[in-house]
Recover the amino acids of this structure.
């Protein structure tokens, strides 16, 4: 049996062979702990971690000492949100975020609510954009942190971080972004975006699973304080205890080095493929709507609602294409997407949504084959759909583009 075409790159990516290759020695002969200062194994591991720290920093325009390695972006998000809140809780107890953030942000905020913090969850518009002016208006004397993701993992919408950064900076409030979907994919520079903290995950950018990083600006103008989540040996300058995942960190570093080199061209190529995908589907199917911003979106994200079709049924029925309905976490519980709901889609279109995530090795043939498969499946499902029959006869009309 032929393997399905992988169209789920917002969930996870395959590891780049060049990344795996540089990791291998650190899984075998070079197994040292970088904290061992007394022998060659330790020195080699320390050197490798230093190199990776440089590679990560270079990609986002940071200094190496501003990079802290973690177990992934879930941990980076938790550390940023809870760590800042707990360290600054004497200064204020209010945080501003928005409704379509990843669960790692939203659930960290829920925990803080139980600790007495107030959280503002800003709404988004139909395209998934948050209004920088709404951010400004949400700020109070109590606000200590703003967290707005760079690009959304379900619908690909890219938030106006530079505008928000300018507002935040003028007020001297800390600014965090979950940039998991953009680092190594589009321009993401911590100075251009005026960010103080930024979360990264290796497995979303062709690196290994279980490793990530948190960027923390060194001075603003004072040192930023963060209360650690873990107590222990004081690794990563006291911010994140635990023996470093050396092979993973080496892999993250290499993934960043490759990302820095290839993203401009890769982004253009994927944008062309994305447009080909959407145009192809649109030419063959009516009542099909693109979710997320039409242009201000990730090069590799296509999220479509096929009116009259149950998205889950479509996904499960397509053995030739691997894709998902949105966030991996919510699709296991079969809950409708809170992201699409926050964007104001009506329930029928939320349930009709399917996300396709293109990647580094997606070819034009993959896109064309996926378009053909999706069209034939959707047509077949619509033949049995009373909702679609009504739509087709013009009895009900749906909003959308
Ligand atoms: C995948 C993802 C995360 C979680 O990253 P892990 O490294 O898997 O913990 C956080 N935020 C966004 C936007 C993501 O897409």
């Amino acid at each position: 049996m032929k393997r399905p075409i992988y169209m789920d790159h917002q969930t996870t990516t395959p590891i780049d062979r060049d990344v795996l290759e540089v990791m291998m020695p650190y899984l075998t002969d070079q197994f040292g702990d970088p904290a061992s200062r007394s022998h060659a194994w330790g020195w080699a591991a320390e050197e490798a971690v230093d190199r990776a720290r440089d590679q990560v920093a270079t990609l986002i325009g940071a200094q190496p000492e501003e990079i802290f390695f973690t177990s992934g972006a879930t941990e980076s998000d938790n550390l940023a949100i809870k760590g800042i809140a707990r360290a600054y809780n004497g200064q204020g107890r209010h945080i501003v975020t928005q409704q379509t953030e990843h669960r790692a942000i939203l659930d960290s905020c829920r925990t803080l609510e139980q600790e007495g913090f107030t959280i503002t969850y800003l709404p988004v518009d139909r395209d998934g954009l948050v209004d920088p002016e709404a951010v400004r208006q949400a700020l109070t004397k109590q606000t200590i942190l703003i967290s707005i993701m760079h690009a959304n993992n379900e619908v690909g919408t890219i938030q106006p971080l530079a505008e928000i950064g300018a507002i935040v900076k003028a007020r001297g409030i800390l600014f965090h972004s979950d940039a998991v979907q953009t680092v190594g994919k589009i321009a993401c520079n911590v100075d251009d975006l005026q960010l103080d903290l930024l979360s990264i995950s290796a497995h979303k950018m062709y690196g290994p699973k279980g490793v990530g990083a948190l960027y923390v600006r060194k001075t603003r103008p004072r040192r930023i304080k963060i209360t650690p989540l873990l107590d222990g040996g004081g690794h990563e300058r006291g911010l994140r205890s635990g023996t470093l995942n050396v092979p993973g960190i080496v892999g993250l570093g290499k993934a960043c080095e490759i990302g820095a080199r290839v993203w401009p061209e890769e982004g253009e190529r994927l944008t062309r493929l994305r447009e080909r995908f959407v145009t192809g589907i649109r030419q063959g199917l009516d009542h099909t709507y693109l979710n997320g911003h039409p242009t201000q979106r990730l090069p590799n994200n296509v999220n479509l609602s096929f009116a009259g079709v149950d998205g889950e049924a479509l996904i499960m029925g397509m053995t030739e294409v691997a894709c998902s309905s949105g966030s991996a976490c919510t699709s296991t519980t079969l809950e409708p997407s809170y992201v699409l709901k926050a964007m104001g889609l009506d329930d029928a279109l939320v349930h009709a949504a399917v996300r396709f995530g293109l990647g580094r090795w997606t070819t034009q043939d993959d896109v064309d084959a996926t378009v053909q498969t999706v069209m034939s499946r959707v047509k077949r499902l619509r033949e049995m759909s009373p909702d679609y029959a009504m739509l087709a006869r013009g009895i009900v009309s749906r909003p959308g583009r």
